[in-house]
Every structure is written in structure tokens, then in C-alpha cells.
Amino acid sequence: MSTSAPTAAGEQAAPSATAPLTLDRLAVVGCGVMGKAIVKGLIDNNFVAPAHVTASVASDDSASALGAYFPGSTIVRDNITAIKSADVVLLCIKPFYVRTVLSEPAIVAALQGKLLISICAGITLAQFAALIPNTRVVRAMTNTPARIRQGMTAVCGGAAATKQDVLLTVKMFQNVGRCIELPETQFDTVTALAGSGPAFAFMFIESLADGAVMMGMPRKIALEMAAQMVFGSAKLALDSGEHPALLKDSVTTPGGCTIAGLLSLEDNKFRGSVARCIEATSRRASELGQPKK
Ligand SMILES: NC(=O)c1ccc[n+]([C@@H]2O[C@H](COP(=O)([O-])OP(=O)(O)OC[C@H]3O[C@@H](n4cnc5c(N)ncnc54)[C@H](OP(=O)(O)O)[C@@H]3O)[C@@H](O)[C@H]2O)c1
């Protein structure tokens, strides 16, 4: 896991000595798949104390389930109460609820002096500035591997956010994986590559296993082998820093079986399909926060 702060270009840099290392009081507005993943990582890493977390959800059922999942934390069904309890507010509701939630009459006053961190796909910093003027907002895009602290997150600060706000957000997300700072112009691509990417990786793992099942391997073994192979290959690419093409070549014996498989993928336009998948997902991500036509 990365432990240093990033530069604007997305490269890791030395952490600032002035940045706070922990959160004091955190409110989580919307605490489903992603909210739970992030808060669990923060609590497990002692980045925030359970007693200093207040989460708000919509339904009674979710509230009682969350109470059992985060013992010692406060679970409410009132966003204003949650926001008032904290210094930092993590917004983890679905994008189509953002306008309604942030248009509550008491919201601007409740948010005064607080940092709002949004993980909502497609909602831009300009849209936040229009909905909650003068609020310090940092936009973050993360992914479900945050559940096991192997997430990939990008962050970008709004006009009112300070450098310290961005640094705190980076440190926060480094508790659940890697985190870098990127310009907002990259966020639709981040949404596709990091946010939606796990779905594509899971489909790849499932397809690999299907091929092995076709050859007679039991599915349980095929799935474990496929997942560990993808995990190991990803870790090798990250740890070695070598270009994937070189790593691929190191597996490919002339006249061997790997090149037979690679050519079969090329015949079926594998690389173009995957690259176009990220392009299509990015384009759709750019439409998410926009009004329906
Ligand atoms: N899932 C991903 O892979 C992923 C990846 C990157 C980013 N994101 C972003 O993360 C955000 C959350 O996604 P998710 O998958 O975690 O969604 P989710 O599992 O559906 O969770 C949404 C949460 O919001 C709560 N909620 C709904 N209406 C609310 C309201 N008016 N006030 C307060 N809370 C409310 C829900 O409560 P109830 O359960 O009571 O309805 C639930 O706890 C989205 O904006 C998405 O774009 C998701």
C-alpha cells in the first residue's frame, strides 16, 4: 500500500509534516457498499475512532444492520444531524440523490466550516459549487477493492478546498489502498478505469475459469487459479514497474502454447475490445451527473 502523498501529476511524493495524520470526527452520508468499505478501513487502521463516526442512511433496515457492523459508531436517518456532528463529511450516496440531499434547506448552514469529500460518480466540482457555495469540497473516485484495502483512488480539490484538505483526503484513502491526486479533467477516465474496472477484471477472471471448466477443471479450482493468476500478474506489474508487453514477452516461448493463446485473443480483437470498453465507460461516466435529455 502506498504511504506517501502524491504530486499534481499523479506521482507519489514525500508526505507533508503539517498534515493531520488522523481524522477527528467523521460523518458518512450514505453508507452502503462503498461507505462501509471506506469506514471499515479507516477504523481498522485507527485513522478515526469508531465513537467519532456518525453515518446516515435512508432506511431503518440499513440503520440497524449498520449499527451491528460498526459497534460504537452512531447511525442516524437524518443527514443534518450527521453533518453537524463532524468536521469531515464523506458523501457516499448514489449520484442521482445528490441534488435532493444537498438541496435540503439546512444543509448549507450545517456544512459551514466543514470539508465535504464526495465519491459520487459524475458529480463535478462545479456542480457542488453551485449546490453548496463556499463549501470546501474534494472529489474522490475509488473502487470496491477498498473493501480489502486494495482500492485505487484519485482525488481532486475544488476551488474552496485547501492543500491541507486534499492532503488529508489522500491520507484518508491511503488507508484503503493507493491514492493519487489528479486533475478533474481525468475523472471520467478514472471512473471507468478504477471505479468500473473491477467489474471488467471480474468478468475476465470468470471467463478464464469458464475456459478451464470447458477443459474439465472443477469450477472452484478454476476460479481460485484464475483469480490468483490475475492477482499475481497485477502485483508483478506494479512491483517490477516493467512494461506489461515485456512481462508478456517473458511468458511467450517461440512456437509455444502462450503465443497460440495470444494470437487467438488478437483474432478476436481483445486489446481493441478492452480499450474501447474503457473509452465507452468514460463517455457514459461523463453523462452521469447531467440532467436527463
Ligand atoms: N459501487 C462501486 O463500485 C462504486 C465505485 C466508485 C464510486 N462509487 C460511488 O459511490 C457512491 C455510493 O455507491 P454504493 O455502491 O456504495 O451505493 P449503495 O450501496 O447503494 O449505498 C448507498 C447508501 O446511500 C444511502 N442513502 C440513500 N438515500 C439516502 C439519503 N437521502 N440520505 C442518506 N443516505 C441515503 C443508502 O441507504 P439505504 O440502504 O437505507 O437505502 C445506502 O446506505 C455512488 O455515488 C457511486 O457513484 C461506487
TrEMBL record:
Family under the similarity heading: Belongs to the pyrroline-5-carboxylate reductase family.
GO terms for MF: pyrroline-5-carboxylate reductase activity
Protein name per its UniProtKB record: Pyrroline-5-carboxylate reductase
The reaction(s) this protein catalyses: L-proline + NADP(+) = (S)-1-pyrroline-5-carboxylate + NADPH + 2 H(+)
Biological classification of the source: Eukaryota, Filasterea, Capsaspora
Chain segments annotated as transmembrane: none
Pathway the protein takes part in: Amino-acid biosynthesis; L-proline biosynthesis; L-proline from L-glutamate 5-semialdehyde: step 1/1
Superkingdom classification of source: Eukaryota
Keywords, ordered alphabetically: Amino-acid biosynthesis, NADP, Oxidoreductase, Proline biosynthesis
InterPro entries: 6-PGluconate_DH-like_C_sf, NAD(P)-bd_dom_sf, P5C_Rdtase_cat_N, P5CR-like_CS, P5CR_dimer, Pyrroline-COOH_reductase
Alphabetized Pfam families for the sequence: F420_oxidored, P5CR_dimer
One GO term (biological process): L-proline biosynthetic process
UniProt-listed Enzyme Commission number(s): 1.5.1.2
UniProt domain Pyrroline-5-carboxylate reductase catalytic N-terminal: residue ranges: 25-122
